[in-house]
Amino acid sequence: MADQTLVANLTAFDAPAERPTPARHAFFVTGTDTEIGKTLVSSALLHAAARRGLVCAGLKSVAAGAAEHNGRLINEDVEQLHQASNLKLPDDWYCPYVLKDATAPHIAAAAEGIALDCGVIRAGYTRVAARADLVIVEGVGGFRVPLGPDAAAPDTADLARQLGLPVILVVGLRLGCISHALLTAEAIASRGLTLAGWVANHVDPDMRHVEANIDAIATRLSAPLLGRVPHLAHPDAATASGYLDIGRLIDMTLPGAVEASHATRPHTAP
Fold this sequence. Notes:
Elements: H1 2-9, E1 25-31, H2 38-51, E2 56-60, E3 63-64, E4 67-69, E5 72-74, H3 76-84, E6 98-99, H4 105-111, H5 118-129, E7 134-138, H6 156-163, E8 167-172, H7 177-190, E9 195-201, H8 210-218, E10 225-229, H9 237-241, H10 247-251, H11 255-264
Parallel strand pairs: 1-7, 1-8, 2-7, 3-6, 8-9, 9-10
Antiparallel strand pairs: 4-5
Helix pairs in contact: 2-3, 7-8
């Protein structure tokens, strides 16, 4: 019943109108671990896209860790994506599952009697993509976070595969990041997904040999390095966006968007 309510909420009366063609650009943002700056980078990507004149929105697939305010559960990551989006949507469109406990999503969901459904998340993405030029879908934790209690339940890697979007990998620069980055890239490739690029985010201010670590990753990944976000004493997405180069991302257009664009383009006489 809870999932049906979530789907129904996606048809909120105050939603912006659909466009003739879906978003031409959309990406799934994952990370080498939790707490490595996925939301900061996702929000920074939205700021960078907005500066290029694109209508963009950021979504969180699942959010765990929220406090109730005025009858609504508020999650900091979801609010950051909301603020960074220049396409303003109904509040519940930015994340279909906002869970109270800041723990593994399947554990938090079970405690609230909620079954996480990839179909609900996909429906949310589809509705937003019908109204934007660019959509960022942020994952949760690392690339393979369970979305159900059983071994057969899908995880966030399965969600990324079902969405079929190019992936942006946020690498948290700290000891062990080289192995984490390469293992995550392998997992992305094994699911037939495209690694569109990666971002080096300096989460540990005391990390030694930062440049050598970035070079080690860059020489082993074929995807482009989209930017190096330095350690920021007071992280904010607008500042972080200045360290990103999204030109190559904008050059990538979703196949479905191209087909839809051709289908809706008026025919002219030869």
